[in-house]
Write a structure and sequence with these properties.
Elements lengths: L4 E5 L6 H12 L2 E4 H14 L7 H7 L5 E6 L2 E6 L2 E2 L7 H10 L3 H17 L2 E5 L2 H5 L5 E6 L2 H14 L6 H17 L12 E4 L5 H16 L1
Parallel strand pairs: 1-6, 1-7, 2-6, 7-8
Antiparallel strand pairs: 3-4, 4-5
Helix pairs in contact: 1-9, 2-4, 2-5, 7-8
Length: 223
């Protein structure tokens, strides 16, 4: 059976996860949040009290890590060595560790087969920063999702505010721009639009419009 793989890439705050998750649910696809995989490795490194900037220490943890994705009502749950860590990996501290371990080649290689295997066996929507360029270069549908810096910062600020995180839009904007710079300039799997990806700017679209646009793009490709 041929399965449909949809790769959605883009910078932080573009709404990739929310849009991809909802579109997958509406289409009956599996949603794969690749960032959660790096966060899980970041959590494992954090628990060891290891330095996430030290590749040797991070690599030494990998043989001890078993990550599983389980889906409950199409919602992704992440397990680290049979422990559900879906909420634990969402803290700012673990986000920082995830960002640091994600630039290590061995970490990316460790997760590569797992991500491709999921896409081989299911209809999937997978989001990240290098899905269409590295992880699933042969994906049937590729979308590069973006928005203006200000709009992305506003959305991320509201998301953090709802979670009770104290910050300012200015801080979020500065952090976002710094991360964009790092993601785009890194030598390993940098953030960039695949040559055959559809560019979708959601600056002037609300959430429902963005989701419907993505769904229509996918349905057009299926036809």
């Amino acid at each position: 059976m041929n399965h449909i793989a949809v790769a959605i890439d883009g910078p932080s705050g573009a709404g990739k996860s929310t849009i991809a998750r909802t579109a997958a649910k509406k289409l009956g696809f599996i949603y794969v949040d690749t960032g959660a995989l790096y966060r899980t490795i970041g959590l494992a490194v954090f628990r060891k009290n290891f330095d996430a900037l030290n590749p040797n220490e991070v690599i030494s943890v990998l043989p001890e890590i078993n990550i599983k994705l389980k889906y409950v009502d199409n919602n992704q749950r992440v397990y680290l060595n049979d422990e559900d860590v879906s909420e634990l990996i969402r803290t700012p501290e673990i986000s920082l560790f995830a960002s640091r371990v994600s630039i290590i080649a061995e970490v990316r290689e460790f997760l590569l087969d797992m991500q491709r295997d999921i896409a081989d066996k299911n209809n999937v929507i997978m989001d990240g920063r290098d899905i269409g360029t590295v992880i699933l270069p042969n994906a049937k549908v590729k979308i590069f999702l973006t928005a203006s810096d200000e709009k992305r910062a506003e959305r991320r600020y509201l998301e953090l505010f709802q979670k009770g995180v104290s910050t300012t839009i200015e801080e979020v904007l500065n952090d976002m721009r710094e991360r964009d710079k790092k993601d785009s300039s890194r030598s390993l799997a940098p953030l960039k639009k695949a040559d055959d990806a559809i560019l979708l700017d959601t600056s002037e679209l609300n959430l429902e419009e963005s989701i419907n646009t993505v769904i229509n793009i996918i349905k057009s490709a299926e036809a």
